[in-house]
């Protein structure tokens, strides 16, 4: 049976590295509209753009999309989703997928798959995705978030550090990954049950959350299971920098 879910796309205009990112032109359309189109193809019952910027709102409305204006002071996209879910009166058992507003190349099938992963795990509060890491430089890169899972494909821990640690294999050299080491890179795509979203803002931060700068650790700290969908390969990268934007523009222009 097809999983019922909604999508919310948080779109902040005030990006540090690329200001005005949601309105950046990609082959004649603002980036936020490109993301809206991808999310709309995923089979969601509704797709909402959540923003605090009138220009973003106007661009989405002009494209026929739905917009929920939110506060400007949210510390994270999860908090912004919680405001939307509460404002629109969604039920606690409903599933909502958080699609980042800088993912104009995201695969609609991946959005649906993460929603289904959560629906299939009745006790999980969140579902996310990960894919294998094959290169040592990614393993030791703190900007690459790693996740270790248990036997039920639930997250045990997320870290910017290299986990799991290959004690014996790396005793002499760290130039390569042991072939059988189960290393997974976390993909920043989340499906939530609305009941968890409503509780999230009231949860105290985890002690490790500040040091790792990973908000998903708060859920684990408070005992909320996170289901991890394993992918065979990395999905298309999002847009963080001007170089990323140039790359994505080239993809659309060639397509």
UniProtKB/TrEMBL annotation:
It catalyses: 3-deoxy-alpha-D-manno-oct-2-ulosonate + CTP = CMP-3-deoxy-beta-D-manno-octulosonate + diphosphate. The keyword rRNA-binding does not apply. It is found in: Cytoplasm; Membrane. GO terms for cellular component: cytosol; membrane. It is an enzyme of class 2 (transferase). The keyword Chaperone does not apply. Keywords: Cytoplasm, Lipopolysaccharide biosynthesis, Nucleotidyltransferase, Transferase. SUPFAM superfamilies: Nucleotide-diphospho-sugar transferases. Its main location: cytoplasm. GO terms for molecular function: 3-deoxy-manno-octulosonate cytidylyltransferase activity. Pathway: Nucleotide-sugar biosynthesis; CMP-3-deoxy-D-manno-octulosonate biosynthesis; CMP-3-deoxy-D-manno-octulosonate from 3-deoxy-D-manno-octulosonate and CTP: step 1/1. GO terms for biological process: CMP-keto-3-deoxy-D-manno-octulosonic acid biosynthetic process; lipopolysaccharide biosynthetic process. Its EC number is 2.7.7.38. InterPro entries: Cytidylyl_trans, KdsB, Nucleotide-diphossugar_trans. Belongs to the KdsB family. NCBIfam families: kdsB, PRK05450.1-3, PRK05450.1-5, PRK13368.1. Activates KDO (a required 8-carbon sugar) for incorporation into bacterial lipopolysaccharide in Gram-negative bacteria. This is 3-deoxy-manno-octulosonate cytidylyltransferase.
């Amino acid at each position: 049976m097809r999983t019922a879910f909604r999508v919310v796309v948080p779109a902040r205009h005030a990006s540090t590295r690329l200001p005005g990112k949601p309105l950046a032109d990609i082959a004649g359309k603002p980036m936020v509209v490109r993301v809206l189109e991808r999310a709309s193809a995923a089979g969601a019952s509704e797709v909402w753009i959540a923003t605090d910027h009138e220009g973003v709102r106007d661009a989405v409305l002009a494209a026929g999309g739905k917009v929920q204006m939110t506060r400007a002071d949210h510390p994270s996209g999860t908090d912004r989703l919680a405001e939307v879910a509460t404002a629109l009166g969604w039920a606690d058992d409903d599933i909502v997928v958080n699609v980042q507003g800088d993912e104009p190349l995201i695969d609609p099938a991946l959005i649906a798959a993460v929603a289904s992963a959560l629906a299939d795990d009745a006790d999980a509060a969140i579902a996310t995705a990960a894919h294998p890491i094959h290169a040592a430089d990614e393993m030791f890169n703190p900007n690459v978030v790693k996740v270790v899972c248990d036997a039920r494909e639930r997250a045990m821990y997320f870290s910017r550090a290299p986990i799991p640690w290959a004690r014996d294999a790396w005793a002499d050299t760290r130039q390569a990954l042991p072939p059988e080491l189960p290393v997974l890179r976390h993909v920043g795509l989340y499906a939530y049950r609305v009941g968890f979203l409503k509780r999230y803002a009231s949860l105290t931060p985890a002690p490790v959350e500040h040091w790792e700068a990973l908000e998903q650790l708060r859920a684990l700290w408070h005992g909320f299971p996170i289901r991890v969908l394993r992918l065979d390969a990395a999905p298309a990268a999002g847009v963080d920098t001007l170089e990323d934007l140039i790359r994505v523009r080239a993809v659309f222009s060639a397509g």
